Amino acid sequence: MTRDHTSRVQAQFARAADAYVASPGHAGGPDLEWLIERGRRRAPARALDVATGGGHTALAFAAFTDAVVAVDVSEPMLRAARQFTAARGATAIRFAAADVDALPFKDAAFGAVTCRVAAHHFAELLPALRQIARVLRPGGSFLLEDILGHDDPEASAFMTDVERRRDPSHVRAFRLIEWTAFLRAAGLTVMDEAVVPKVRDWDEWTARGRMSETARQELDRVVLAAPTRCRDAFAFAVEDGRIRSFTTRLLLLRADRD
Q1: For 205-234, how does the pLDDT look when each residue is reduced to its tens digit (9 = 90+)?
Q2: Which pTM value belongs to this model?
Q3: Which letter does DSSP use for residue 174 in this model?
Q4: Which end of the chain is more exposed for a tag (fewer CB within 10 A), N or C?
């Protein structure tokens, strides 16, 4: 990442670390179960969790993996994740501060790499994927979950604006065709895929972003003033002039190193 973008990511998650640990949407659900199921099938001896956030994926993989390394660019997130996983008795997880486009590991060091709901923060996707492919052993699996980009340009631009107003470190959500192309360019082949909808409670989602009251009110105004077709693309639920929720489509991929 560029230095400026890294600073934005660090600033955003430094103040929201505990909220991400406590987030129900990150703690579990069918999306995490999808990753766990495929991780169990692959049975890696060593796994790397990139941009670990609250540590939920690392904790899940520690249940069936001999050694898990969890990295994040945010030191406060790492502290929160370390406390969270330790409180649940996990002893096989090692935490390290690292940027995804400069992973401090040897080539072919891991049988699996996971990255859950984080890639939309990467300043550039291809350099990150090349690093992930580098540290994967041949035949190893990259297990990805991220926000799925919308095919409609206007709806996509609307949601990108919403995301960035709530979290300035958001870059963009990619479509499946884009993910497939970037992964192939990095030497990774998509073997399995799924799309899982996830309802986001508006109050919880915006609060987790640590928005000021003024910024939250302006974001509400932007959403309510948007074309109906843009709101409908993300199933925004509005009652009595208040935003209640919206629905994110989460893309799940297993891509193996060639």
Answers
A1: 999 999 999 999 999 999 999 999 999 999
A2: 0.94
A3: B
A4: C
